[in-house]
Amino acid sequence: MRTHQTGLSLVELMVGLALGLFITAAGLAAFAEQWREHRHATAAQRLMQDLRSVGDVIARDIRRAGHWAAPAASAPNPYAAFAPQAAASDAAQFAYSRDEVENGALDGNEQFGLRLRRGVIELLLGAGNWQALTDAGTLVVTEFVLQPRVDSVSLLEHCAFPCPPGASCDARVEVRRLAIRITARAADDPSLVRRLDTVVRLRNDGVSGACPA
Predict the structure, then answer these.
(1) From CA 111, how far away is CA 113, in angstroms rounded?
(2) Rounded-to-integer distance, Cα 173 and Cα 203, Å
(3) What DSSP string describes 72-86?
(4) Angle CA(7)–CA(10)–CA(12) in degrees, nearest 5?
């Protein structure tokens, strides 16, 4: 007997094509989703790395606040002040200073500051010279908070002479810290937001009062 062979019917061909297209579409959708997740994870990692980088730069600069090259026992440190400033477009959000050339005075090139302006953190390098620390094309900073913390510790127990009875003695050292918070979003993805919190201790402690003579 002869075997008669026939091809696929039109219905079978259409069903096969539909199944193939369905499987291909499912594979492409899965690949696209994985690609989006990979891009999102990479962008999040890059955003966090940028925040850490700017946080490190700020921390290194602030740690030197209050440096005095030739301190005098009879005079207060002219570089000790560090405080938030009034919110203004041309002013520092946080101002501090340190000694660059010792001449007994606080010069313009010894005044530094930080501010958030149009989504960019800027560093004042003295004499009104502002330098951007973040790139607005990569990230947009939405929050920049600097909160001073001062812990005052008594030094009387380390003084050579005790406080006389009835006298008011107040020799103290001020351990100064600065809590920093930076929140930013990716410039090309507003839904991608990250926050960095860190605390920096200033190397130059403040001193108030004096030991009993």
Answers:
(1) 7
(2) 12
(3) -TTS--TT---EE--
(4) 80
Q: How many helices (H) does the chain have, and how many strands (E)?
A: 1, 9
d(CA 147, CA 199): 9
Do the Cβ atoms of 206 and 172 come closer than 8 Å? no
Q: Which helix (H) or strand (E) holds 172?
A: strand 172-186
Contacts of 98 (CB under 8 A, 6+ apart): 64, 65, 66, 67, 68, 79, 110, 112
Provide CB contacts within 8 A for 209, sequence distance 6+: 155, 169, 170, 171, 172
Residue-wise pLDDT tens digits, 104-156: 677 878 888 899 989 999 998 876 788 999 999 899 999 998 888 888 888 77
Q: Taking the alpha carbons of 117, 118, 121, 122 in that order, is the dihedral positive or negative?
A: negative
What's the pTM value of the predicted model, to 2 decimals?
0.73
Q: How many CA atoms, within 13 angstroms, populate the side-chain half-sphere of residue 112?
A: 21
Q: Which of 154, 203, 212 is nearest to 176 (CA)?
A: 203
Alpha-carbon span 178 to 63, nearest angstrom:
9
Sign of the Cα pseudo-torsion (55, 61, 65, 67, in order) = positive
Q: Which of 200, 204, 112 is nearest to 149 (CA)?
A: 200
